[in-house]
Specification:
The protein is of the alpha+beta class and 165 residues long. Helix content is 56%, strand content 21%. The protein is built from four helices and four strands, in the order H-H-H-E-E-H-E-E. The protein has a four-stranded antiparallel sheet with strand order 1-2-4-3, with helices on one face.
C-alpha cells in the first residue's frame, strides 16, 4: 500500500502546477460525490420512507379507532333495537341489503347467540356501515373481527363473529 501511495505521489509531483490543481479539484469532486451517493442520499431516503410509513400507520390507526367506536357495545345512539328478530335472520337480511354491497360468502350460526360471517372483497366502509346498522337496529355487535386487505384498493376480506347483546 505504501509503495502505491509513493508511486502516486511521485506521479503527482511530475505534473505541472496547473495539472496538480485540476487533479486535486477532481479528487475533491469525486470524494464529495461518493459521500453524497453512499452516505447522505441513502440516509435521506430512509428517513423519508420511515416518515411516510409513520403517516400511513397513523392514518390506519385512526381508521381502526373509528371502526372500534362503531362496534362498541351499547353505542346504539339511544334508539331502541329490534330484539324480536332472530340473530341469524337479522344478519342474513342486513347482509343482503345494499349496505354491505355483497352477500357474505358464508354464514354459520353458533347456537342462538352467535353467528360467524365470512366476507370477501367488500369495501371497508361498507363493512363499517353494516356493523353500525346491526348495532343500531338489532343490538348485534362484533365480538371478534379478523380483516385482511384485498388486492383491490379499499376492499377487505375477513371473518366476523357477531353476537346479540
Amino acid at each position: 500500500m505504501k509503495e502505491q501511495f509513493a508511486r502516486l505521489q511521485a506521479a503527482l509531483l511530475q505534473l505541472n502546477p496547473r495539472e496538480r490543481i485540476a487533479v486535486g479539484t477532481a479528487a475533491v469532486v469525486v470524494t464529495l460525490t461518493l459521500v453524497f451517493l453512499l452516505v447522505w442520499d441513502p440516509l435521506a431516503r430512509a428517513h423519508r420512507d420511515r416518515a411516510e410509513a409513520l403517516d400511513r400507520a397513523r392514518a390506519q390507526a385512526q381508521q381502526i379507532e373509528r371502526a372500534a367506536a362503531l362496534v362498541k357495545p351499547g353505542s346504539s345512539g339511544g334508539r331502541t333495537a329490534n330484539l324480536s328478530t332472530s340473530l341469524l335472520t337479522a344478519v342474513d337480511t342486513t347482509s343482503r341489503s345494499p349496505v354491505l354491497g355483497k352477500a357474505p360468502s358464508r354464514v354459520q350460526p353458533e347456537g342462538d347467540r352467535e353467528v360467524k360471517v365470512w366476507i370477501e372483497d367488500v369495501p371497508f366502509a361498507n363493512v363499517l356501515r353494516w356493523l353500525d346498522q346491526l348495532q343500531t337496529q338489532y343490538a348485534i355487535s362484533a365480538s371478534s373481527v379478523e380483516i385482511e386487505r384485498s388486492d383491490v384498493s379499499g376492499q377487505v376480506s375477513g371473518r366476523l363473529t357477531l353476537v346479540r347483546q
